[in-house]
Amino acid sequence: MTTLNVSRRTMLAGAAVAGVLTQVRRAAAETGEVLTPAAATDVAGLPRVQVKLVDPPFVHAHEQVATGGPKIVEFRMVIEEKKITLDNDGAEVWASTFNGTVPGPLMVVHEGDYVELTLVNPPSNELMHNIDFHSSTGALGGGGLTQVNPGEQCVLRWKATKPGVFVYHCAPPGMVAWHVVSGMNGAVMVLPRDGLKDRDGQPVKYDRVYYIGEQDFYVPKDENGKWKTYDTPGESYEDTVAVMKTLTPSHVVFNGAVGALTGDNALKAKVGETVAFIHSQANRDTRPHLIGGHGDYVWATGKFTNPPEHGLETWFIPGGTAGLMIYKFQQPGVYAYVNHNLIEAFELGAAGHVVVEGDWDDDLMKQVMAPSPISS
Ligand SMILES: [Cu+2]
């Protein structure tokens, strides 16, 4: 067994891409010179709001219908490289995280607003990181303008011109896939200023919103079939990439670990409440399904200029996409929210629970006879 010695410098730049990195940074600087002054002039008079991000599955307070005109919404995210435990079997991974969670926090703004992100890479980290916003417009989604080494921070502003839910993820040159499958991704929701609408143009509102980030992990095993552990992210790199290239994840989980959304961590709702479920998968296809319920309104590919589908049983979210499903609960009980590749749900971890309180409706479902001995 070989232990790869990856130097700090190699990790920062990506093994064979130091030259590319330099080019990207130069291009980014040139882009910045052209674009930044004009944008600053345009937005100088806009009101600013600071939003403190919260850990998923929760979402920061926000308006569904915007009051007032466009504003600059300021967010701050601190990158944290941390060892996390994925299951009860002791599988560990060096996660790279936005703000310490997998997925990173959901940001909510309205169409026409500006997102202004301060991205901080503390000196305690080992790696260079950046951020590519699928919701933004511009080369690399901001990835070329946000490459921060440990000990650096940067500020990126982009205009939210496309309404929908969108993935964001880290994308450092030469190591994009590894960072994304190390957990470094999240989502943005850009609401229409006048809120969500059904396909007839009627308003759709939600009482609660949850953010579920589905993550595939690729944890190496040793020759005895035990999960391998590493002292640093860099030491895990070569083995992890070898597993990644099999395209066979060791874990497919919601919110960073098997069971992160079950038991005491189950999502909660009440009968009669309308709940919005945002679901992102930055790397791999998925097919969410609410066992015992339906997708009343589903934007499977998450873009609000398209009408939602109604009454779905399962919906398909391609890798690199965030989707939104809205459902009004009608019965109490424990609902499983799963990736309906049931092997991924029940063997690899992609399942959560929604515990719903309220009164049972016999009209919708009734046990006419409890299990009992067969009689003629
Ligand atoms: Cu990263």
From TrEMBL:
Its main location: periplasm. Binds 1 Cu(+) ion. It is found in: Periplasm. Gene3D superfamilies: Cupredoxins - blue copper proteins. Belongs to the multicopper oxidase family. GO terms for molecular function: nitrite reductase (NO-forming) activity. Its cofactor is Cu(2+); Cu(+); FAD. InterPro entries: Cu-oxidase-like_N, Cu-oxidase_2nd, Cupredoxin, NO2-reductase_Cu, TAT_signal. The lineage of its organism: Bacteria, Pseudomonadati, Pseudomonadota, Alphaproteobacteria, Rhodobacterales. Its EC number is 1.7.2.1. Pathway: Nitrogen metabolism; nitrate reduction (denitrification); dinitrogen from nitrate: step 2/4. Homotrimer. It comes from Paracoccus simplex. Keywords: Copper, FAD, Flavoprotein, Metal-binding, Nitrate assimilation, Oxidoreductase, Periplasm, Repeat. This is Copper-containing nitrite reductase. It catalyses: nitric oxide + Fe(III)-[cytochrome c] + H2O = Fe(II)-[cytochrome c] + nitrite + 2 H(+). It is an enzyme of class 1 (oxidoreductase). Residues 89-193, 210-358 form the Plastocyanin-like domain.
